[in-house]
Design goal:
The complex is a heterodimer of chains A (about 400) and B (about 260). Chain A is built from eleven helices and 18 strands. Chain A is of the alpha+beta class. In chain A, a hairpin with a 2-residue loop joins strand 15 and strand 16. The longest helix of chain A is centred in the first third of the chain and has 12 residues. Chain A is globular, with a radius of gyration of 20 Å. Chain B has one domain. In chain B, helix 3 packs antiparallel against helix 7. Chain B is globular and about 60 Å long. The model of chain B has no long low-confidence stretch (mean pLDDT about 90). Classes of the chains: A alpha+beta (about 400), B mainly alpha (about 260). At the A-B interface, helix 3 and strand 4 of A face loops of B. Chain A: Keywords: Signal. Chain A: It comes from Arthrobacter wenxiniae.
Chain lengths: ~400, ~260
């Protein structure tokens, strides 16, 4: 479902910038399908690299509350990240989301097999880290001076998707909203269907690695997305950069890509973490029910605007759907879709957004009052929240969402 | 050259500025010592860490000094280079000597650069001394959360000092150029300082993000990248290249202006 792929697209678009290869890069000729297979066969398990992400979604640039906001949201939420994961739409998360949507980020990523990951978000005069070493996941926020230790039930949980082929995008524990090219590419490719026109652009170089450029263009004119480009490493199939361009625009609306990349194992010490003295440390272990906290980061929400409702739904412990407006957000909203392909509109029923939240200043900062509710309108996607708390989202113009809402 | 430096360092003004810069970390250290640690996440970066480790005094001081106090003092010195001599009426006597205008300009710029070094060093030195005198030393946590021992940390701080010093060279070149435009040293100083502030204002406007990498102040706070583990050298390199560009461009402009200028005073 391309709507679900949009997160990938958006994240990818963030970094893109200067992809124009000045010199022609000669690579063995391949068909788009072969490059797609190369991408799917990506088996990179070890890397150190620097990601740059930029977004130009037509939103006013708001101050990135980055450093500290992770910690503060964690502190503010009883139960910490697990509870925060249960409801991603906390004020802290929203401010992170805003930061992601409007300001560029530099992120260093280190990977050595599925059990060793480290992500460093480089903020000005501060840093947010997530370090996974075996069953232990540390998060550290130098601005707030807080750390969280999370112990996973299984040292090595099977990955969703292709086991063994861990894409470096699969940093499940990325702090805040840090989509990686691989995660985006996986989302985009997962949603490929006949409504997508596949082609190859001219070869390029990303962070010193020659790459094929896979271009995905929606055949429909109803989607806001004009094109998704994925730079695929010619040697390994690793997605190096994902660029999302809005329809009718030349420059990237969203791009995530490597500015530096080495496909070697980082030093083992990279994944060993001890919180420095003076840090306030929270410890918890993950509940046996394998929820997927990483999946609930604002990044997911952003990159998957259609999926805003699903994180809310996920933690519901088998509660039956409840139509009472006051409590429906604790139950599992039925997420329906309408439209097809890239123009899919995802709908979550009334009550998905708790009334307390829709009135919060953080959300008000993000949303604009429009006919039929409050809306977030960007160059790539739109989200409409109706007064009764239903959510409509998709990579379509706002008017299409309003139509869908009115048709209910 | 030696006489230029000795003239600069014999001036009471130079010492007053260096003392003022040195007073900033001392003030921070004393204030934190008297009032106790601030709440984490409030105030300038690193302020809340000072009670745990004295070396953070230096870093807090640099965070405060880099955007304002260091450019201020460098602006005074750089703006004074040529215009000061002209204002005193001594410029024409300097040019009577067969040294040539390019050489005079070079000596003046080197003098300003030495002041950049001295200014940074005075903050570093005063901060280290004050921090270690009032607070415990020991392993220092980096931004990434890793602990390094005190000597490694001091090495990192020296690197940060180098970064800050390099950051000021571009501004010094701009000041040198402005100084060749006028005979009024105060005007040149004020213009240089105003430019430093204007550059930082422009850097804060998201609408001008295409311009940001070209502003000499863009990387000023990038010294934090030297406090990560592993060290992120990109911003050091970018900053050095940018400052070098400013030195070359404004050095050339200053020479072009100064070589053809009628020196009447």
């Amino acid at each position: 479902m391309p709507a679900a792929a949009m997160p990938a697209v958006i994240a990818a678009a963030v970094l893109a910038g200067p992809l124009q290869a000045s010199a022609r890069i000669d690579l063995p000729a391949r068909t788009p399908e072969q490059v797609l297979a190369l991408l799917a066969g990506n088996k990179v398990q070890q890397l150190s690299g620097t990601l740059e992400e930029t977004a130009s979604l037509g939103l006013p640039q708001l101050p990135d509350l980055g450093p500290g906001s992770t910690g503060s949201s964690g502190r503010a939420t009883p139960g910490g990240p697990a509870a925060a994961a249960a409801n991603p739409l906390t004020a802290g998360n929203i401010s992170q989301l805003l930061g992601f949507l409007t300001t560029p980020h530099t992120v260093r990523v280190y990977l050595d097999g599925p059990a060793n990951q480290r992500v460093q978000v480089l903020d000005t005069l501060a840093e947010r880290d997530v370090i996974r070493h075996g069953p232990t996941v540390w998060t550290y926020d130098s601005g707030a001076n807080t750390a969280t230790e999370l112990t996973l039930p299984n040292p090595r949980r099977p990955k969703t998707g292709a086991p063994g082929a861990l894409a470096p995008g699969s940093f499940e524990w990325a702090p805040g909203a840090v989509p990686t090219p691989a995660a985006l590419a996986a989302e985009v490719v997962k949603g490929m269907d006949p409504s997508t026109q596949l082609s190859l652009g001219s070869n390029t170089t990303v962070a010193g690695h020659s790459a094929y450029v896979l271009q995905l263009v929606p055949r429909t004119g109803a989607s806001l997305i004009g094109k998704v480009s994925i730079a695929v490493d010619s040697g390994t199939g690793l997605p190096l950069r994902v660029t999302v361009t809005a329809r009718g625009q030349d420059s990237a609306a969203l791009e995530v890509g490597f500015s530096k990349l080495e496909l070697t194992a980082p030093p083992a010490s990279t994944f060993l973490f001890t919180p420095p003295p003076g840090t306030s440390v929270t410890r918890k272990s993950q509940p046996a029910v394998p929820t997927k906290p990483g999946g609930f980061t604002p990044g997911t929400v952003i990159t998957r605007p259609g999926a805003i409702a699903t994180p809310l739904a996920a933690p519901a412990p088998g509660a039956p759907a409840n139509d009472h407006p006051a409590v429906t957000h604790h139950a599992t909203p039925k997420v329906a879709t309408s439209g097809t392909g890239w123009a899919t509109i995802v709908e979550a029923p009334a009550g998905t957004v708790p009334a307390t939240l829709s009135g919060s200043p953080a959300l008000a900062q993000l949303l604009q009052p429009v006919a039929g509710g409050h809306a977030l309108s960007t160059t790539l996607f739109s989200v409409l929240i109706t007064p009764d708390g239903a959510v409509f989202a998709g990579a379509v113009p706002l008017a299409a969402l309003q139509q869908a809402a009115a048709a209910k | 050259m030696a006489s230029e430096l000795s003239v600069m360092f014999r001036r009471r003004r130079t010492w007053a500025m260096l003392a003022a810069l040195a007073a900033i970390p001392v003030l921070i250290a004393v204030a934190v010592r008297v009032t106790g640690a601030g709440q984490s996440g409030h105030g300038p970066a690193f302020l809340d860490r000072i009670t745990q480790n004295g070396l953070f005094v230096v870093l807090t001081a640099l965070v405060l000094c880099t955007p304002l106090f260091l450019p201020l003092t460098v602006g005074v010195v750089a703006g004074d280079t040529v215009a000061g001599e002209a204002g005193l009426g001594t410029l024409r006597y300097l040019l009577v000597a067969p040294a040539g205008r390019a050489r005079l300009l070079l000596v003046k710029y080197v003098g300003a650069a030495v002041f950049c070094l001295a200014a940074t060093a005075s903050v570093l030195l005063a901060g280290t001394v004050a921090g270690l005198a009032l607070f415990p030393a020991g392993p220092v946590p980096l931004l990434s959360g890793e602990l390094v021992d005190g000597w490694t940390a001091e090495g990192r701080i020296l690197l940060v000092g180098a970064f800050v010093c390099v950051s000021l060279l571009g501004l010094a070149a701009v000041g040198l150029f402005i100084s060749t435009l006028t005979d009024v040293p105060v005007g040149a100083m004020a213009a240089t300082i105003a430019l430093a502030i204007a550059a930082q204002l422009l850097d804060a406007l998201p609408q001008l993000d295409w311009l940001h990498p070209w502003l000499f102040s863009h990387w000023w706070l990038g010294f934090a990248d030297l406090l990560r583990q592993p060290v992120e050298w990109t911003s050091f390199g970018n900053n050095a290249a940018l400052q070098l560009g400013y030195v070359l461009v404004f050095g050339a402009l200053a020479y072009g202006r100064f070589a053809t200028k009628d020196v009447l005073s």
